[in-house]
Amino acid sequence: MREKADHTELRPGPYRPRVSIFWWVRRRSYLLFVLRELSGVFVAWSVVFLLLVVGAVVRGPETYRRFLDVSATAGVLLVNAIALCFILLHAVTWLFMLSPRAVAVRLRGRRLPPAAIGAGNLVAWMLASALVVFLVLG
Amino acid sequence: MVDHIILRVTRYRPESEAEPTAREYEIPLRKEWSVLDGLNHIKDHLDGTLSYRWSCRMGVCGSCGVTVDGEPKLACATFLEGYAPGPVRVEPLSNFPVVRDLVVDIGDFMRKLPRVRPWLVRPEGEPQAEGEYLQLPAERAEYEQFSMCINCMLCYAACPVYGLDQEFIGPAAAALAQRYNLDSRDRGASARMDVLSAAEGIWACTFVGECSAVCPKGVDPAGAIQRYKLTAAMEALKSLLLPRGAR
């Protein structure tokens, strides 16, 4: 039995546009979003690097000195400089863009404006950084 | 002084075209004219076959969403003067199937919306004699912002997550769910949680934030979703750590 042809050259129906693989360069916010997603890789790298530092310290002064030498090479410095930029982007997103909108804090029955929560986060960030500086240098 | 402007309008006639094409129309540029006025001028005087949605002309009905020069906008609230000397690109909203010209199919949203129960949920069998559900102004302020949504679909058009994954419940449906979750009269938060906490619910949102940036009514769907993520995470933590009676 011959199958009935069920197609025509132009079948009336909705047009479904395809999403371009370069959709993320269409807007600045999309690009920032993709960079933020990518920042997760560098956050993971910084954790690994920190664990390597701790491992080198545990193994003794000689291992630690060798680790410092490797860390001072141009390649590792470049990766860490890029990682720092991405981690800052990650931190700024969380502290000043996401958490002020996600957290509803009430003071005397009134909801704090998002900017106040962002400012609170900034103060907390500064205090934590000061503590780290004190522990390292003090 | 420029007294005319060109609208480059996307046309799609499914009975004769395989994909959309752009067509230019020269229209008068008047100070008080919005993009919708321009489209109406085309329809009335230049080409009666142009199809687009509109109704109230005052940013309330949410039907005239289009893409103007790459940005999702309400045609009635976007003034042509800001785009002079032109040309101005007027295209259908992104991320939706195009039915004809500037008309898109929003059926996907209409199917998703009832799943989040966008109405006041009350326990079954409450006696009417108990009276109305009273609410203080401060309680109303909790959800008022999210009640401004007019379902115009600009947030869906701006959301790349929805563009890539049509299973995502989307910004407006999530914001409307929060509108009722935050309402002191509502008791349906736990019923909505199943839909909102699913993989294609709030967790699919990656906080691009463009939904809130394009919203013509100042609703913050991105904020609503992030706030609900925190609520859902706390609920999950409670169910893990606390005994059943203390949750």
UniProtKB/TrEMBL annotation, chain A:
Specify the superkingdom.
Bacteria
- Gene3D superfamilies given for it? Fumarate reductase/succinate dehydrogenase, transmembrane subunit
The protein's UniProt keywords, in alphabetical order, are: Cell membrane, Membrane, Transmembrane, Transmembrane helix
- Where does the signal peptide begin and end? none
Q: Where are the transmembrane segments?
A: 38-58, 70-96, 116-137
**Does Transmembrane show up as a keyword for this record?**
yes
Native source species: Streptosporangium fragile
The entry's protein name is Fumarate reductase subunit C
TrEMBL record, chain B:
> What are the required cofactors?
[3Fe-4S] cluster; [2Fe-2S] cluster; [4Fe-4S] cluster
Annotated 4Fe-4S ferredoxin-type domain ranges read 139-169
Cofactor note text: Binds 1 [3Fe-4S] cluster.
EC number per UniProt: 1.3.5.1
Keywords for this entry? 2Fe-2S, 3Fe-4S, 4Fe-4S, Iron, Iron-sulfur, Metal-binding, Oxidoreductase, Tricarboxylic acid cycle
User: Which Pfam families does the entry mention?
Assistant: Fer2_3 (PF13085), Fer4_8 (PF13183)
Listed InterPro entries: 2Fe-2S_ferredoxin-like_sf, 2Fe-2S_ferredoxin-type, 2Fe2S_fd_BS, 4Fe4S_Fe-S-bd, 4Fe4S_Fe_S_CS, Beta-grasp_dom_sf, Helical_ferredxn, SDH/FRD_Iron-Sulfur
Q: In which pathway does it act?
A: Carbohydrate metabolism; tricarboxylic acid cycle
Which domain of life does the protein's organism represent?
A: Bacteria
Annotated catalysed reactions:
a menaquinone + succinate = a menaquinol + fumarate
Q: Where is the 2Fe-2S ferredoxin-type domain?
A: 7-96
Q: Which family does it belong to?
A: Belongs to the succinate dehydrogenase/fumarate reductase iron-sulfur protein family.
Q: What PANTHER family does the record point to? A: SUCCINATE DEHYDROGENASE [UBIQUINONE] IRON-SULFUR SUBUNIT, MITOCHONDRIAL, SUCCINATE DEHYDROGENASE IRON-SULFUR PROTEIN
List the protein's name.
Fumarate reductase iron-sulfur subunit
Its taxonomic placement starts with: Bacteria, Bacillati, Actinomycetota, Actinomycetes, Streptosporangiales
The gene is: sdhB
